[in-house]
């Protein structure tokens, strides 16, 4: 008979971290391989940013006025970067619910592998997908006339803030994906549209009604988009509120708070499945 070799369980904190990272990379590779082998999904994810640039930059953009003045397409692109990052949450939810409904999650839980490494691997693969989407969106922006004006270093810092928000939203998506049904996950896009619209993505909160503008200013997405406009040197009236004047600080603080809440919730929920 073939003897099943079970690896020794880690006993020290360093061994546990190494074990989680190793298993996380295995799960991440699986996610990336599935993504590449699904050409319909690849084409959809890559065409979506291009379509949004064309739609908002040329169709709606002709009727838009930037508060404080400036070219609307330069105002628009950081908002589209942020919207694309936010929409990635729905993708995470759908993938997690699909794995759970098809028994993949149960299979992982039955194997001698780090349970935190499974959700960590999901975050790795989603981050790689997000980087590719942002690269394509940046290329679209450059093609339609968008530019950064404060140097390459600050442009990289802005991209880092976008990816920081995406990393935080991945943990929200993992947690939701572990508690909702596939049918509910299919509708995950619906609440994201108002969340990305009630922000400074397409218009300044100062152009909204007072109560709505207040909600938009404190939207975590607004902090990231406002910070990106500041770092890119793109037009955009920041407003006089504390949130608008401290966009960079909030663009760091909001994701840290979200990760601190949802990362342990996600790991705990994964460990407690079917209990």
UniProtKB/TrEMBL annotation:
One of its GO terms (molecular function) is ABC-type transporter activity. It comes from the Bacteria. GO terms for biological process: response to antibiotic. InterPro entries: ABC2_TM, ABC2_TM_bact-type, ABC_2_transport, Nod_factor_ABC_transporter. It is a multi-pass membrane protein. GO terms for cellular component: ATP-binding cassette (ABC) transporter complex. Belongs to the ABC-2 integral membrane protein family. Pfam families: ABC2_membrane. The lineage of its organism: Bacteria, Bacillati, Actinomycetota, Actinomycetes, Streptosporangiales. Keywords: Antibiotic resistance, Cell membrane, Membrane, Transmembrane, Transmembrane helix, Transport. Coiled coil: none annotated. It is found in: Cell membrane; Membrane. This is Transport permease protein. Residues 40-273 form the ABC transmembrane type-2 domain. The chain crosses the membrane at residues 46-69, 75-97, 131-149, 155-178, 247-267.
